[in-house]
Structure formats: structure tokens, C-alpha cells
Amino acid sequence: MFWSKKKDVQEMKDAVAGPAPIPYQQPETYVAPTKMAPLFVKVDRYKEILETIAKIKGTLKNLDSVLKTRQSIDKLREDADSLLIRQLGVCAQCTHELDDAFAKPAALEQMVVAAPEAIEGDMQQITTRLSQLSDQLQQIR
Fold this sequence. Notes:
Elements: H1 2-17, H2 43-103, H3 106-113, H4 116-140
């Protein structure tokens, strides 16, 4: 019995003393939330974000394709320009050759190159031939 009284006495002391004192806690100060991405995103919003990313990827692919096509067009243009320049050169050369051939006939070049003695001999032959033709013409009339 003695032990049970001691336990009862302790309970009475605790009841009279009241609750144990609570240590002093400093009140929490308000901290403004920093601009961070939310930890959890709604499923619909997440779906919209994925669709937007897919659109951006598609746009980037299209831009890449356009640039490659433009580069190939530029290369074709350069090739066509070089071909045109070469063909114009060939055409100009042919034109000069034709101009030289028609402006200076080969017979004229031989006459100019021929010596004056040969020209006098040719002139005598031409004169004799003209006189023969003139005689024949007189006979026919």
C-alpha cells in the first residue's frame, strides 16, 4: 500500500503544479514567396506545355528544311550563272570567228599576201581573157 500512496502523491503534485512551462518560441516571420515554378502542374497544363514544345520542334524542323532548300537553290543559281558565263564566252568567240570569216574572205587575204609581180601576171591574164570574151561577144552579135 505504501507504494500506491507514493504514486498518488506524485499525481497530486503534478496536478497542483500545472502543466510544464512551454519554452519561448520566436514567432515566424513572413517570407515573400520567390518566383519559382510550381512543384506540381495540372495535367491539362502539362499537356499544353508538351503540345507547345512539339510545335516549336516542328517549326525548327521546317526552318531547317527551308534553309537547306535555300542553300541548294543558291548552289543551283551559282552553277547556272557559271554555265551562262561559259556559254556566252563560247557564243562571243563564235561570233568573232564568223565576223572575221565574213569580213575578210580568204581570197582577199591571199591577194594581199601575194607579191606585186604575181598581181601583174594575174592582171595580164585577166586582160587577155577579157579581150577574148569581148571578141566572142562581137562574133555572136
